């Protein structure tokens, strides 16, 4: 259930393995596209072909009638969004709606697999309870397990074939059923964990690891600036030791995963380090823009700044919690006019987020440029065509600093003194 960036590739993979797949989604346009053999999800290598092949083989049919599809299915795989609310707690609205729809069709003996990243205890205590409440079934009447998605946009099929599939059931029978299903459906190893809670915690731990280590990189980069050291050079040297895994600093952490999942841990337990990591990473856009303002005589007030990259990272069309939004806010606080360009987004899509779209090279003068997402399209960008440009904030160490400075522009980067 859920034919988005993760659910649709899973449906295509299962169909390729010979399963008859009913893909469920609440969006009728998504369902119609899949039933035409078209992928409504862009930018995912191999997905268009997988959907078309599955449809043509008769192994994939999409529907908005989840209850009916569940009633005809032996296995139900759930991949719907769980985000955070304004207070930083998990928002279960979509998951609860999914549980209700599934419960109306759930049969005795079926296997339900939750892949959405969730707080520890959700599978058993929250999701399972709602499935039982709607279906009228009791514990043990159906199998229930957690198996977190561990893939990234732009490499889903590769990741599914590479990373071990973690599985944790609410009981031994669920563990065995989940293991058997995934061993038949994925080419990677299947790692069976003691229970659902261990699998849930494992997914949160790997996500928190990345967020906290990025925060550490940001702190070290700021320290390096003060000490007159280029962090990138020092980190590369440090990482020549096999136990060192220093990350790259930047203007923040975006996407629907890494900046969200730490809150799933801190809502359950007190974890000052995890909370501080989030605070540090969310402060980096402000920090970077302040450095940019200091690099321009007279600051940014009344000037035009161009942000390159609406996406949260290069090469993907995804703006969820992108640092570009924090960068735009920081620029506006300094009374700058903010323009945004992204080769993967239309002008209308940029406007829909309350931002002013621009072209590259820009039509008018821009005094400052901020590289937020390192899209391949920005490689070799000629800043001589940027009239009036005085400084470049390279949020990802994407450009050649010497080439930028050779044009008489100030080059600013996190970790570069």
Describe the 3D structure.
The chain is of the alpha/beta class. It has 3 domains: 188 residues, NAD(P)-binding Rossmann-like Domain (Rossmann fold, 3-Layer(aba) Sandwich), CATH 3.40.50; 73 residues, N-(1-d-carboxylethyl)-l-norvaline Dehydrogenase, domain 2 (Orthogonal Bundle); 134 residues, NAD(P)-binding Rossmann-like Domain (Rossmann fold), CATH 3.40.50. The protein has 15 helices and 15 strands. α13 links the parallel β10 and β11. α5 packs across α6, α9 packs parallel to α12 and α12 crosses α13. The radius of gyration is 23 Å and the shape is globular.
Number of domains: 3
Low-confidence stretches: none
The tally of beta strands, per DSSP, is: 15
Q: How far from one another are the termini?
A: 49 Å
CATH class type of the largest domain: Alpha Beta
- The CATH topology of the largest domain corresponds to Rossmann fold
Q: What is the CATH homology-level superfamily of the largest domain?
A: NAD(P)-binding Rossmann-like Domain
- Name the beta content range: 5-15%
Q: Rg to the nearest angstrom?
A: 23 Å
Can you give the helix content as a percent range?
Answer: 40-55%
Outline: globular
What strand line-up does the widest sheet have? 12-11-10-13-14-15
Structural class: alpha/beta
Summarize the structure.
By secondary structure, the protein is of the alpha/beta class.
Give the helices and strands, then pairings:
Blueprint: H1 7-16, E1 21-24, H2 28-35, H3 47-56, E2 60-63, H4 66-71, E3 75-78, E4 83-84, E5 90-91, H5 93-103, E6 111-114, H6 122-135, E7 143-146, H7 156-162, E8 165-169, H8 172-185, E9 190-192, H9 196-226, H10 231-238, H11 261-266, H12 272-295, E10 304-308, H13 323-333, E11 337-341, H14 347-351, E12 356-357, E13 368-371, E14 391-394, H15 401-405, E15 410-413
Parallel strand pairs: 1-2, 3-6, 6-7, 8-9, 10-11, 10-13, 11-12, 13-14, 14-15
Antiparallel strand pairs: 4-5, 7-8
